Amino acid sequence: MDERKRESMIAYLRHRMEDFGISADDLATALAALPEAERYRSANGDSWSGEGAMPQWLKQAISAGQSIGHFELTSGSVSKLRLQAGADWTNDPFAGSPLARPSAR
């Protein structure tokens, strides 16, 4: 991603955080609250620590051609930010992706 696109995305995310009343502290708290045991997560919220038998949802995804890395959580993953009611997702570039799916805390 070039620097201009990166800066544009950062500005967009800051604006959306303001729209939803999410502060940098809220984001840091949500990141710190992520269970360390979770290493992989599906779009449906299924998770796996990477230890023990691989769960069926991940086996099926891999056999369908998806990379296991696609499900790996990174330090920047956020799964459960509380969103304000009445949000307008009309112009959201992430609409239809897992990033646009609100999840309850």
Spell out the blueprint of helices and strands.
Blueprint: H1 3-20, H2 24-32, E1 40-41, E2 47-48, H3 56-63
Antiparallel strand pairs: 1-2
GO molecular function, one term: DNA binding
Pfam families: Histone_HNS
Protein name: DNA-binding protein H-NS
Distance between the termini: 31 Å
The profile of the biggest β sheet is: 2 strands, antiparallel
Strand/helix succession: HHEEH
- Kindly state the number of beta strands: 2
Q: Which class do the helix and strand fractions yield?
A: mainly alpha
Number of H- or I-type helical stretches: 3
Notes on the protein architecture:
The protein is mainly alpha-helical and 105 residues long. It has one domain. 33% of the residues lie in helices and 4% in strands. It has helices spanning 3-20, 24-32, 56-63; strands at residues 40-41, 47-48. It has a two-stranded antiparallel sheet with strand order 1-2. The longest helix has 18 residues, at 3-20. The protein is extended and about 40 Å long. It starts with a helix and ends in a 42-residue tail after the last helix. 1% of the residues are buried.
Compose a concise summary of this entry.
This protein is mainly α and 105 residues long. Helices cover 33% and strands 4% of the residues.
Task: For this entry, give a set of tags.
105 residues; mainly alpha; two-stranded antiparallel ribbon; 3 helices; 4% strand
